[in-house]
Amino acid sequence: MPAPEPIPLAPEPRKPRLPGEVVVRASVDDLIDAIAADLFFQAKACVRAFGDFHLALSGGSTPEPLYRRLMYDPRLREFPWKKTHLWQVDERCVPEDDDRRNWKMIGEILLDHSDIPRGQAHPMPVLEEQGDELYERQLRDALEWREKGHDRLDYVLLGIGADLHTASLFPGSPALDAPPGRLTVFNDGPTVTPPERMTLTYEMLNASRFLGVMVTGQGKREAVSRLAAGPLDPAEAPIAGIRPLGGVLRWYLDAAACPEQAAE
Questions:
Q1: What is the three-class DSSP state of 169?
Q2: Stated pTM of the model
Q3: Which end of the chain is flanked by fewer CB atoms within 10 Å, N or C?
Q4: What is the DSSP string of 200-262?
Q5: What is the pLDDT of residues 70-114, one digit of tens each?
Q6: Is residue 57 included in any domain, yes or no?
Q7: Would you call 43 helix, strand, or coil by DSSP?
Q8: Structural domain total, the chain
Q9: 97 contacts: CB under 8 Å, gap ≥ 6
Q10: Can you name the residues that pair with 185 across neighbouring β-strands?
Q11: Has residue 16 been placed in a domain?
Q12: How far apart are CA 66 and CA 54, in angstroms?
């Protein structure tokens, strides 16, 4: 009897050329494995080096499965939540019980099922008149205990929109030109998807030790293709303004988000 023909293997997804490092996995589950492993490594390393870990997270449906994985994967049981400060990348200016609020999802998953001390959870005070300045003070107060140069966020998880916005930095919006020294600002205007937002600024984001950008699904393929074709003006494509100063920029893409003709 003739030997069975080998089953052809699916081709490995090809990495688009993007600024920084690029990680591509065939499926979202495999991609979440890669992000969780990096996040776990960074958390443990920062706790050893500095005694704590400062993590800033984005909202939305893309990272939600990752946050759930952090809570149930037995390989992540030793994640140092007690030493973790949890921050927000951005937030909508809506009431706390509004389902559009990023913190509602993040809190229900991470705070309700981990042992993060409540004093180390930092939701953005979006309904306070000078909430952006208050959040800046919280960031400075929490980070000033570290040695100069290490007083920055340790891991920031970003995403991108079809318009290439990231955080709540939208094309042509006022937050793109935040004054020097500003870490957090409100953002509104014709190009900002309502409602008004609060967001970390480029200055705060680009000072971070590690910036991860999670991009999944065929709906993001055109955006990734535009980025790979670059260079782009941050005023029109805000994600292009993410340029870490001495930190790591790592893209996490599933195969569906990769342009079909991407080059190695």
A1: strand
A2: 0.93
A3: N
A4: E-HHHHHT-SEEEEEE-SGGGHHHHHHHHH----TTT-GGGG---SSSEEEEEEEGGGS-TT-
A5: 999 999 999 999 999 999 999 999 999 999 999 999 999 999 999
A6: yes
A7: helix
A8: 1
A9: 104
A10: 199
A11: no
A12: 17
